[in-house]
Specification:
The complex is a heterodimer of chains A (306) and B (228).
Chain A: H1 3-19, H2 21-58, E1 60-65, H3 71-82, E2 87-93, H4 95-113, E3 127-132, H5 138-147, E4 157-161, H6 165-206, H7 208-216, H8 221-261, H9 273-301
Helix pairs in contact in A: 1-8, 2-6, 2-8, 6-9, 8-9
Chain B: E1 2-10, E2 16-25, E3 30-34, H1 41-48, E4 56-61, E5 64-65, H2 74-78, E6 81-85, H3 96-106, H4 111-124, H5 140-152, E7 158-162, H6 170-185, E8 189-193, H7 197-202, E9 206-211, E10 214-219
Parallel strand pairs in B: 3-8, 3-9, 6-7, 7-8
Antiparallel strand pairs in B: 1-2, 1-4, 4-5, 9-10
The chains are: A alpha+beta (306), B alpha/beta (228).
Pfam family, one (chain B): ABC_tran
Main location (chain B): membrane
Subunit structure (chain B): Homodimer. Forms a membrane-associated complex with FtsX.
């Protein structure tokens, strides 16, 4: 194929999109609908994943110590806990630091609540913050730490606390949403392909006569196919670009709204658009074009057997 | 140029369209194909540009052996044959100019050459001034002239015309025949199926009469020979 033939195919592809007016709009709309739903699900799945990751990193075991624990015993305990194979990190939080962190976490509302408490009348005990390698082992590790009390006559451990039940259910729910989401995404992608194949088939059906005339004057199948390829790619491209704009503008509004309404440093934070726009946009664009070209290929195949 | 040897054609529904046709057409001939409707004229024409394949027998056109011609080589055969139909078969969404240019785009001719050649043939058929009209805005005779321009634009050695004047009034038909005669004079073989007795009898050329799928008459400077 020489360059002027390529230009001719491009020209024909473009003109055909405009000439088929409503048919093209129907194709583009079906692409938009499919890709939009797909995009929403991808965003949902990734945010749920992100949420699970955040929850994962927030899962830690807080070990509060009795007031009578001296430095030697404390260091001995820290040593024993850090030797457990499930534990990745242990940090000593003196009660002064604990009070400060609590103030910070509670924000303005906490200010009143903690008023009057200072260094000399700090109600908090000293604590260890223990992180584990695998989030699911949290209950087990908590039990093991509590059991340390039986090995020391001083009974140094006041309390062991962790996210408990809620964290475990969160893991189960996120895994479920993730799996359902992935299945739905796959099904929707397939549905979009069939929708577009059908729309382009109708377009080609309307041009059956044209194709037979082209063949009569000696056009090769390849020559007839090219403008349809370009038309399909164009329909897919336009559809995905519109989808990307709608999806990104909408998602950005959502991110902004969630940040302003949940000013308490909440666990539920959405992935910012800057982090994902490039690859999500790229994915939707490529997918749209692939769907368009694939649809036109499938539809035209049987009309070329003249 | 064109040769058929004992060609038979039976359609899947059992109709015997051609039964043992043998014929030879030389370069630069002008041949009328006449005969009653359903006698096999159209099948005879379609076999030559490989729209249909014979059930039995050999056909060669322009040096192509059609029984051995591979599917993907068919376009090459057709580029050397111009076809003209009763219903013109123009692309409705393209202008007159674009319809003619299309046949050259198919063979990947450079754009400059296309422009020059298309204007040349539009001039030959007398429609240069209507180059930018769409088929809907042209009369039947004008549409057929565009179809003829498209058929000859690539300088084919053969033109196959299936009742080119079938939809036209006598005066317009006469103009079309003059044009075909001119093209034949310039060196193109023309094979034309027709029901038009006046044309065959006034412009005497070789006549092939087909009845019941057989050539019953092959006459140089023949006459139409039917009373309808």
């Amino acid at each position: 194929m020489n360059f002027s033939t390529f230009l001719r195919h491009m020209r024909e592809g473009f003109r055909s999109v405009f000439r088929n007016g409503w048919m093209s709009i129907a194709s583009i709309t079906s692409i938009i609908v499919s890709l939009f739903i797909l995009g929403v699900f991808i965003l949902l799945v990734f945010n749920v994943n992100n949420l699970a990751d955040q929850a994962d990193s927030q899962v830690e075991v807080n070990v509060f110590l009795e007031l009578n624990v001296n430095q030697d015993l404390r260091e001995q305990l820290q040593d024993e806990i850090s030797k457990m194979p499930e534990v990745s990190n242990i940090k000593y939080i003196p009660k002064d630091q604990g009070l400060e962190e609590l103030r910070k976490n509670l924000g303005e509302g906490g200010e009143n609540f903690l008023e009057g408490y200072a260094k000399d009348n700090n109600p908090l005990p000293d604590a260890f913050r223990v992180q584990v390698i695998e989030a699911t082992t949290v209950p087990f590790v908590a039990q093991k730490i509590e059991a340390l009390n039986t090995e020391h006559v001083e009974k140094p451990i006041l309390k062991v606390r962790y996210g408990g039940e809620t964290v475990q259910t969160l893991f189960k729910v996120t895994a479920l949403i993730r799996n359902i989401g992935l299945i739905l995404v796959a099904a929707l992608a397939l549905m979009a392909m069939f929708l577009i194949a059908n729309t382009i088939r109708v377009t080609i059906l309307a041009r059956r006569r044209e194709i037979s005339i082209m063949k009569l004057v000696g056009a090769t199948n390849q020559f007839i196919r090219w403008p349809f390829f370009i038309e399909g790619a164009l329909l897919g491209g336009i559809g995905s670009i519109v989808t990307i704009i709608i999806l990104f503008v909408g998602y950005h509004q959502l991110v902004v709204a969630s940040v302003t309404s949940l000013n308490m440093a909440s666990m539920v934070t959405l992935i910012p658009l800057q982090q994902i726009w490039l690859w999500l946009g790229g994915l939707l664009l490529v997918l749209g074009i692939v769907i368009g070209v694939w649809g036109s290929t499938v539809s035209i195949r049987r009309f070329l057997k003249v | 140029m064109i040769e058929m040897q004992d060609v038979w054609k039976t359609y899947p529904n059992g109709a015997h369209a051609l039964q043992g046709v043998s014929v030879k057409i030389d370069r630069n001939e002008f041949v009328y194909v006449v005969g009653p409707s359903g006698a096999g004229k159209s099948t005879f024409m379609k076999l030559m540009y490989r729209e249909e394949q014979p059930t039995k027998g050999q056909i060669s056109v322009n040096g192509f052996n059609l029984s051995k011609l591979k599917q993907r080589k068919i376009p090459l055969l057709r580029r050397n044959i111009g076809v003209i139909f009763q219903d013109f078969r123009l692309l409705p969404k393209l202008t007159a100019y674009e319809n003619v240019a299309f046949a050259m785009e198919v063979i990947e001719a450079p754009r400059r050459q296309i422009k020059k050649r298309v204007m040349e043939v539009l001039d030959l058929v007398g429609l240069q001034s209507k180059a930018n009209r769409y088929p809907d805005h042209l009369s039947g005779g004008e549409q057929q002239r565009i179809a003829i321009a498209r058929a000859i634009v690539n300088n084919p050695s053969v033109i196959i015309a299936d009742e080119p004047t079938g939809n036209l009034d006598p005066e317009t038909s006469y103009g079309i025949m003059q044009l075909l005669d001119e093209i034949n004079f310039r060196g193109t073989t023309i094979i034309m199926a027709t029901h038009n007795r006046d044309i065959v009898n006034s412009m005497r050329r070789r006549v092939l009469a087909i009845e019941n799928g057989m050539i019953v008459r092959d006459q140089i400077r023949g006459e139409y020979g039917y009373e309808f």
